[in-house]
Write a structure and sequence with these properties.
mainly beta, elongated, 90 residues, four-stranded antiparallel sheet, 53% strand, Immunoglobulin-like, four-stranded mixed sheet
Length: 90
């Protein structure tokens, strides 16, 4: 029986707020991952991400310092970078 060894990694993540503190942006580096292999959930308090590239499994759980409006979140993926923009709840 052959055992498959998979690498489980936490991706690089960058988070920042705009100057007016109205929007939060989260950028997640996912090298060699296709968009079809990304599972993302966002709610008002956290982000949960799973992504697969060959034998590499990325996983990330991130709590937000400020609550966001999850229904208005916009996620764009390109050039190995997942960018999620979310308005902050006032």
């Amino acid at each position: 029986m052959k055992t498959t060894i998979r690498k489980k990694l936490e991706p690089e993540v960058y988070t920042f707020l705009d100057n007016q503190m109205n929007h939060m942006t989260v950028e997640i580096l996912l090298p060699n991952v296709s968009q079809d292999n990304i599972k993302l959930r966002v709610n008002s308090r956290c982000l949960i991400l799973f992504a697969v590239s060959g034998d590499i499994h990325y996983a990330k759980y991130m709590s937000f310092c400020f609550p966001v409006i999850a229904k208005k979140a916009i996620a764009v993926f390109g050039n190995d970078l997942l960018r999620i923009e979310m308005p902050l709840r006032s």
